[in-house]
Amino acid sequence: MLNNLKELCLLNGVSGNEGKVAEYIVNEIAPYAECYIDPLGNVIAHKKGASTSKKRVLFDAHMDEVGLIITDIKDNGMLTFSCVGGINTEVLLAKRVKIGDIYGVICVKPIHMLSDDEKKKLPDKDGLLIDIGALSKDEAEKYIEIGNVAVFDSDYVEFGDNKIKAKAIDDRLGCAILIDIIKSDLPFDAWFSFTVQEEVGLRGAKTATFSVDPDFAIAIEATTACDIIDTPENKSVCKLNEGAVVSFMDGSTLYEKQLFDAAISTANNIGKKIQVKRGTSGGNNAGAIHLAKSGVRTVSLSIPCRYLHSPECVIDKRDIESVRDIAVGLFEQMADDKI
What's the CA angle centered on 163, arms 304 and 229, to 5 degrees? Predict the structure, then answer.
């Protein structure tokens, strides 16, 4: 699974440009499941299990990552851009990016040139530029077009005590977990959606869920962990190496109490760590899935991730197994109509 995670994170797939990620996933799962790519770009898969499921269960993870889109090329060859998905200004400053095969750096004024007032605040995000080393607009236009997307240029690294850092862990980890589940033997039939454009409005999940028409869904995601120095306990949200994260509410979903309780009891029964997200901000594809058609009973399982929506997302390898095994345990109960 970690090899899949590494290869997925090193692929580039900003919202609306997930084609390379979709191609990789199809190549990985085609020997194990029937799959197709729908008109919006979602990868939809059906895996036969040992028995026919009593209820249709959908596993979901999104393929897209946050990034940038080029909006103009200035006379001096610098590029203006807008964010695709939610990215804080401080994450952008002086970061290296790639636009196709072209490297660039997001400009930042050196501290020596800042006024006292400028030192006290972040620059205006709309005023930031990307420097690709071009001397003029004509030169830049040889390599860049308006509408090109840029991604953070960041390596996949395993470090410290079971830690991994990479871009796009949100939600390539969910994709890696779904691939691993598809490659395993399952007791019941299962459906999977690897969806597009989650970061810009849960768009792919809307069409994928409509196509699959599930009774239950398990959204597998990455969620914010703020377990860093000087953060109050109640603001840390969740912690690395404390297992899967289950939510009771977020910005797009009020989760069903019966499924919330089932996630916790499943974790306890199989001896896997689980923690409750101490916060209600954010959201994920569950927000679109649970409202599809006449409604879908939906639960969200997440891996705690530091520095989310940045070039250097950090997770703990020990949490991955908890998310995967609890998801499978819930699936078996859902598919057999025991929840």
Answer: 65
pLDDT for residue 116: 83
- Number of neighbouring beta carbons within 10 Å of residue 111: 8
Set 198, 199, 221, 332: catalytic member: 198
233 is catalytic: no
Whether this model's pTM surpasses 0.90: yes
Backbone angles phi, psi at 150, to 5 degrees: -120, 145
Domains of the chain plus CATH, in order, are 2-65+167-335 (3.40.630.10), 67-152 (2.40.30.40)
The predicted-structure confidence for 182-216, as pLDDT tens digits, reads as follows: 999 999 999 999 999 999 999 999 999 999 999 99
d(CA 168, CA 222) in angstroms, rounded, equals: 10
53 Cβ contact partners less than 8 Å away, ≥ 6 residues apart: 188, 189, 190, 335, 336
Residue 59 contacts residue 190 (beta carbons within 8 Å): yes
**pLDDT band, very low/low/confident/very high, at 4 (cuts 50, 70, 90):** very high
Q: Cα–Cα distance between 221 and 244 in angstroms, integer?
A: 10
